[in-house]
Amino acid sequence: MVPRPLSLTTRGVVALGIAPCSATAGVLLGAEELVLVSIALLVLVCCGLVQSAQRVVRARGTWQVVVDLESADVEVGRPLDVSVTLVAAPAAASLPVWLEDPGHCWVRVHRRAAGPPRRLRLPNPSQAVRVTPRADGAAVRLHDAAPTAHRGVYALRGMRLWCFDSFGLVAQLLTVGPTATITVHPVPLRVEVPDAALRGSEGTEDARHEAPAAHLKRTGSGDFSGIRPYVPGDRLRLLYWPASARTGELMVRDFEEPRRPRVHLMADVRALLGAPGCERVLATAAGVGLRVLAQGSVVELSTTSGEHIAIGPGPLADMALLRAIAGMETAEPVPPPRWWRRRRGAAPEPDRRAPHPVAGAPLVVTTAAGATTLPDTLGRSHLVVAP
Fold first, then answer.
1. Residue 147 class from Cβ within 10 Å (0-12 exposed, 13-18 middle, 19+ buried)?
2. Cβ contact 317:301 at 8 Å
């Protein structure tokens, strides 16, 4: 890692901000004590620079941070242990360092457009854990709990390892740990739904179909459709050697896979249901979707907030569905102010209190309170599932 210059901590910034103010007030008021306070603060910062520089010479390049998770997928409310291991060379055995608190490094990943870039975080000794290496050079292991109280996708930013001075005014970055991501999915709720509604109906394939794997393996059980280049994952018995000899690259026989029945779901995640109601709706949608996949059908899930996913049956289908639901947003985007819409010529935001029917969505998942606010046409032409 390229050596980085020494930087002030939050305490150091406050100290340098107070020093000139104290000196100015002391001169104007004739108070020598305030001038002495400013001089003392500047002396402490200078001493911190010298002490940190000496410690960095001994500690740089001797530390390594390893993050270990029990699992990358966990249900809401189930504890998940995060183990952080710090390995140091014997030369840094007596040098204290500070590791950024893992609890302040977790951030939730949102699917919506990202906002402005995050500002540079100043090192803060109050948000760090002091680590004292063992004399025998053995690894130091810390344990912390991941945020699993709420559904979502959470990313662990690289935890920074700092070297502070005795007063916590100056810091030097030693190393940055790896990042990690966990998916907190809802616990599927089971509701009574007729089996006929779970089997679905034949329909055209959706261009937005999301498969559990990056590439669907062709088995050759459908109708012959032509010759195409080989893609990793294709069956070797589908290789067509005459075409391969002519083109100089591997070619395989392509077959159209039989169309699977599709079941359309619409999850009601309007703001009027409240956060607990929306979470219960998504948990119910997960339970219904898992039963659809068990029937061998493709599940298409749409939400009133505008999200849409389609997942087909397969060995990774259940986890793919739970991961997709874990990342869904329930809050409506905040509309821009009226003056901004008039300036940019943007269309007014539509009223989303009553969802419009989705074409081909026979199942609507909502709550008992949300079912009373559905349009009459939606209630008569669709099967409403309320947990």
1. middle
2. no
* DSSP conformational letter for 103: G
* Phi, psi dihedral angles at 228 (to 5 degrees): -145, 165
Residue 76 falls inside a structural domain: yes
Task: Residue count of the chain, please give it.
Answer: 387
Domain that holds residue 244: 223-256
- Which residues is 107 bridged to in the sheet? 155
Q: Are residues 368 and 276 in the same domain?
A: yes
What's the CA gap between 365 and 279, in Å, rounded? Answer: 11
186-192 average pLDDT score: 88
Phi, psi (5° rounding) for residue 2?
Answer: -70, 130
User: For residue 341, is it within any domain?
Assistant: yes
How many structural domains are present in the chain?
A: 3
Q: Are 206 and 310 in contact (CB under 8 A)?
A: yes
Q: For residues 35 and 160, state if they share a domain.
A: yes
pLDDT digits (tens, 9 = 90+) for 305-357: 888 888 888 888 899 999 999 988 886 544 555 554 455 455 444 444 444 44
- Model confidence, pTM: 0.72
Question: Can you tell me the distance from the alpha carbon of 264 to that of 292, in angstroms, rounded to the nearest whole number?
Answer: 10
Asked, for residue 323, whether it belongs to a domain, the answer is yes
- Considering the domain architecture, whether residues 175 and 231 belong to the same structural domain is answered as no
Does a structural domain hold residue 2?
no
Burial class (CB in 10 A: 0-12, 13-18, 19+), 94: exposed
- Domain CATH for 76: 2.60.40.2550
Residues 6+ apart with CB under 8 A from 164: 9, 52, 98, 123, 125, 128, 170, 171
